[in-house]
TrEMBL record:
One of its GO terms (cellular component) is membrane. The chain crosses the membrane at residues 20-48, 54-77, 98-125, 137-156, 163-185, 205-222, 242-261, 300-322, 343-365, 377-401, 413-434, 446-468. GO terms for biological process: transmembrane transport. This is Amino acid permease. It is found in: Membrane. Coiled coil: none annotated. It comes from Paractinoplanes tereljensis. The lineage of its organism: Bacteria, Bacillati, Actinomycetota, Actinomycetes, Micromonosporales. Keywords: Membrane, Transmembrane, Transmembrane helix. It is a multi-pass membrane protein. Residues 25-397 form the Amino acid permease/ SLC12A domain.
Amino acid sequence: MGSPEADHPGEVQTLAPSRIGAAAVTFFALAATAPLAVLTTVVPAAYARGGGPLIPLTFAAVAVVLLLFATAYAAMVHRAPYAGAMYTYVSRGLGRPAGLAAGWLAIASYLALQLGIYGVAGVAAAPLLHSWFHVEAAWWMVAGVCWLLVTLLSTVRVEIASGLLALLVLAELAVAAGFATANLLDPAGGKLSADSILPSSAVDRPALGLLLAVGVLAFIGFETTGTYSEETMRPRREPGYATYASVLLLALLLGLVSWSFSVGAGPGEITALARARGSELVFDLAAARLAPWAVTAGRIVLLAGLIAAMLALHNAMSRYLYAMGKERALPRAFARTAARTHVPRTAALTLSAVTAIALVAAYLAGVRTPSILAHRLGVIGGLGILVVLLATALAALLHLNRVPNGEGTWGRFLAPILSTVALGTLGYLAFWNIPSLLGVPADSALVWSVPIAFVAVGALGLIHGAALRGRRPVQYAGVGQGGTPVVVTPVPPTVARTIPQQREPGAHRPERVKR
């Protein structure tokens, strides 16, 4: 019998149980999606490409797909309420090597997203620092301050972190709702137009495919709910509830606020205005209707929301490392938690060190304007998580039907298979439109190097699984079990039994054998 805790019983290797509820987990997930950053960067870019009234409808369509996925996700959370989340679910449905591959891909993708947000924060802070202090701070200075805040806050109690993120997310929701209300109360031309929500011409299929890809990437972060399972009051239920809530709230927020942009600018002017102003579109529309202090408050909340997203992603990654360390897929040091706060401090500080090295490398490489690099890192990270979501949906379909445990036909079969097909379609559209998503020519090296990088990370995970199986079979058997002790029964050696040679028929009665 083997388990991580049994090897070193004196070490603290558990997260704090029953510390947070479904609402807190929902705020963690919403913070990870950085909703205000999506509204200021992703939505204007979609309008600039001529998305028009299809943009709000796209968010609604993607939300339907993700609600189907949330059904399968909640069922897997109920079966395996562990901090490993999708790493655990894929291990149970597709096998331990595939689970390790999914875990490594999830960590790498979240890290790319976090690094991209560091770059966006440097750009978002520039107007504030210029207007307040008349200084031009380099992006890496702002990123360094954000890194210090994230490092410190990642080691506090989870309930304190959830309270802080709740305040920041509520501030983001308030700013977005305020800006949207101002646009709707003072529409362009003095009246609401049906053209702002209904397409006035035939839908361009390639453009629709690109919009669907952009839409699903805008929701990335909602799936981090499962990483807090071990810290919730009802581990088998509340992460699932939070997954539903985060998808619904994001769909309402992104759909309504993006529609208000078209209303405020005018359906006929929104495309040209988005191309000309880019991420400043949101603040330009607000400045035309609200007092200057409201616009400044919006910029402050945007920067605070970016820090919240960094912290939420950092927490999710640290819990993936904690789960893999607890199951001895990684060194058990990653499973050590602080005695007072019960947070995975070793994993969190390790991630901070990796992030610091990456930021220093970007500075030494001569990155001066991180906007383009941040955008591409965000797209790459989102595509990686989309691959993990697809693997999780397929794993849920296989595991729930291979080992049924009271789920109905909808939760066990229909929702998982529909989400698998739908996410597979969205994944195909995303990779088909990868040049447009990355903003590079079709013959750019990035177009083929990004999928190859995903395959390489997945292959490393498979190799990790094979090596673990060969060298430490007891720990390998515990992958996906949340650190539960695993009993391995040795197979007794097969003893070859000598079968006596059959006698010739009739040999005992020679007189009855016909000659």
